[in-house]
Amino acid sequence: MPTPMAIHVQGLRKRYAGFRSGVDALQGVDFDVARGEVFGFLGPNGAGKTTTLRILATTLSPTAGTATVSGHDVRKEPMAVRGSVGYMPEKSGAYPLLTGIQNLVYWGHLQDMDGSGLKDRARALLKELGLEEAADRKVKTYSHGMSRRLLMAQALVHDPPILLLDEPAGGLDPQGIRFFRDLVKRLQGEGKTIFLSSHILSEVEQTCTTVGIIHKGKMLAVDRMTALRQRIGASALVRVEVECDIPSQPVVQQLMAIPKVRMVYQLPDGIRVEAESGADIADEVARVLVTNHVRLRAVRPTEATLEEAFMSFFGGGPI
Amino acid sequence: MTGNPFVGTARVGWMEFWSHLKSPRLIILIVLFALLVFGASYGLSQSPTMGFTNSAYLFGHPAIRNETDGTHYLVIVWVADVRGTPMAGILLSLYNASFEPYGGGTRTLIENLTTNSTGWASADLGTSFPSNTSFVLQSESGGAYLMGMTYVSFDQTLSNRTFTLGAISTSSTIGPTGSVTIFYTHVLTTTGYPATGANVYLNDTSEGHPDANGFFSTSLAPGPQTVRITYNGYEESYMVMGNTNAGPTYQNGADVVLLTVTTFFGLLLPIAAIAISFDAVARERAQGSLEILLAQRVRREGILLGKFLGAFASVALPVTVVLLAGVGILTAVSDKAPTGTFVVAVVASSLFLVAVYTLLMLLFSTVAKSVGTAVVFGVVLWLFFNLFFSFVTTFVLFSSGGSFFNPGTYGTLVVLQLFDPNTLFSMLVFLAIPSSGGYSGLVPIGYVSTATVVGAAVLWVAVLLVLTLFVFHKKAES
Ligand SMILES: Nc1ncnc2c1ncn2[C@@H]1O[C@H](COP(=O)(O)OP(=O)(O)OP(=O)(O)O)[C@@H](O)[C@H]1O
Ligand SMILES: [Mg+2]
User: Does residue A86 fall inside a structural domain?
Assistant: First the structure.
């Protein structure tokens, strides 16, 4: 009996053994992905996204914990897992000396598909992914974007119910990003479960139904997109940008003295004041400046984007 | 759930095979291999200066023929190489020679002769019996075909015989690989036609009849033996000597040529195998395709076995074709085919060498972190077995007080050589060559048996295959 969950991960750990010291890339990761969901797996570089995806795709074995995909344990039934997922790795991996169609047919063969129908399907897929023209060209002549599309076709060739996409839009131009976003939406419409990783929130913001945030090998949050937006937003800083003459040092000190204010920055044409979340400081900032005879041109409380909020969520870590 | 660990093996193997067949490096190496095999097969089959001596010989016979105008006396000449291949266009001079009792003498040129396309030439001396005269036949073609002279004399006893012998000769070569002695003769009827019905016996064992040209040859076992030739009730016997001091005597001269051709295989075949498989895994890893491959419905064992079979076949197939073509050239040039079982053994041993190096390289390719490291591994591997291994084992043998003449340490050395695929290859070849000597070249009798050597070869491949499957299973993902 298949479990209701498309992907079930519990206590997942992965240690890369090193010569002197290893790396604990995953330190007890838990999450579930329901069928038909689009799950955005978010985290900064080095968080452990690729590691998790590789374990789910059975190309990497976990050190501890369990991961089941479509009800099959990745360790005990890797072949069943492989048959039910399509995996698009982070790096391009097609055979450069083969054509796009040859690559696709080879992978199809390795998914137990057979000759006649496979060729037609491969061609149709390449067409769907905008590679119709390039289908009979050697892959070494492909651009980065074309290679990504070919890898996507590879993940889809055997029509798997679950897709594991590792930064599908990584390195793509805005048009390419939009293309993948639309594709994901279409695939979701077809009832597929999609697990995709990214380190850019805006990339998944519009497509994902659920988001999991991983940082340094641990899950920080797993939630519905809408709920998460509120949570992240709530933890963000409040900012006020003021267009004005540059205030003197005593004025800056008065600004810093406003309750909940954290920092005052100098901008080319004014200042920016940051305060803890929930604080409403715009009026107070304006009052201080006016009473100190600083010429004001504009005061703008700016709402942090989710992107920025996401950054501050990680404590300003490298994104 | 299907339990077959090798699903997809054929697909992976076919892809590997197919992609190598078009690769320039395979083509370059196979062309090089073919040039060496063809060149050696051709050169060693005919050149008298290398390995097997195969220079031309002059066979001269007196003959008496009754023709319409009376009885004619003729000198019949046939020129052929040691294998009985006729040599055309050889210039000869026929002299009348008279000898002084105490040395010296005079020669008078009678006529010049040139051999025809089947190696024959003859001079009609007329109708009067040329008694008490010797005729000297001398080759005027110098250089590599210098075959000296031969005497032909007529005497009254000729009429009592049924045949004459052009020569009773042996030709031996001695080398590190052993020796071969070939005995040959040329038998004509007294009327000057090939005595194809004559019987040749070696120590009373029938060895067959002369060929259509009257030529007969065979290999000799070491030691003295008696040759007896009979024809129409008349017989002659001679003592001949098989070479005794250089190991085995191979039963077939063509085998010796093939054996010599294989001497550079230990250098070249590993390079071909290494060049094909050094990046079989490392390159897939570097370009990222391994990650996709591992995610397909193929087990890791299946991938590796496929890679092995594909890489192996892409070298094995052209190598086999080249080898068989080389045997064809050898046969065509020397007019004598190597023994069938020996040809099969040479091909099988060569494929053993290819299999071992393919597996070793797949193993290194799996653990190598980059394609560059894999190349270095390949070079080291080649040097190790071609240079290091024998050097080190011999050094250890001598520095620990052993010697080649001490049976114990020598035996140890022989057994140690089983751990070197290159020497093992040579042993396999030497064991397969039909020989009638006391020992077989590289593999001294009493130290290792044929079963041990063949078993060691099978173990090499089996153990390496299991080890490589295991390592690939463990290390493919890193
Ligand atoms: N093969 C490996 N050997 C050793 N350490 C590794 C290996 N692969 C990843 N790591 C380490 O594991 C950690 C997680 O890496 P991972 O590739 O999973 O991150 P990621 O979230 O995918 O990052 P990115 O956004 O840059 O792709 C990192 O610290 C990385 O250095
Ligand atoms: Mg990654």
Answer: yes
Quote the CA–CA distance of A138 and A102 in Å, as a whole number: 9
Q: For residues A291 and A162, state if they share a domain.
A: no
Q: How far is Cα B187 from Cα B45, in angstroms, rounded to an integer?
A: 25
Does residue A319 lie within any of the structural domains?
no
The ipTM value here is: 0.80
Residues A39 and A62 in one domain: yes
Q: What is the pLDDT of residues A7-27, one digit of tens each?
A: 999 999 999 988 778 899 999
Write the residue with the smallest CA distance to atom 28 of ligand 1: A46
Q: Tell me which ligand sits closest to the C-alpha of residue B291.
A: 1
Output the six-digit token pair for A253: 């000190």
SS3 for A135? coil
Check which CATH number belongs to the domain holding A245 and give it: 3.30.70.100
Q: Least CB-CB distance to A95: which of B7, B12, B289?
A: B289
Residue type, B448: V
Query: How close A43 gets to chain B, by Cα (Å)?
Result: 22
- Chain B residues whose CB is inside 8 A of the A57 CB are 294-295
Q: Does A142 touch chain B (CB under 8 A)?
A: no
Q: Domains in chain A: how many in total?
A: 2
pLDDT per 10-residue tile (average), chain B, 478 residues: 72 93 92 93 62 66 89 91 80 82 76 91 88 77 59 81 82 51 87 94 92 88 85 91 59 77 91 92 91 94 95 97 94 84 95 97 91 92 89 78 62 82 89 62 61 94 96 87
Domain boundary among A231, A246, A278: A231
Ligand nearest to the CA of A18: 1
pTM: 0.71
Q: Tell me the sheet residues that pair with A275.
A: A238, A261
Chain B residues lying within 8 Å of A94, measured CB to CB: 289, 292
Establish whether residue A42 lines the binding site of ligand 1, counting it when its CB lies within 6 angstroms of any ligand atom: no
Query: If we measure between CA atoms, which residue out of A62, A40, A7, A77 comes closest to residue A197?
Result: A40
Would an 8 Å CB–CB cutoff place B203 in contact with chain A?
A: no
Band of residue A294 on the pLDDT scale cut at 50, 70, 90: confident
Domain check: are A144 and A290 in the same one?
Answer: no
Q: Is residue A171 within 8 Å of residue A143, measured between CB atoms?
A: no
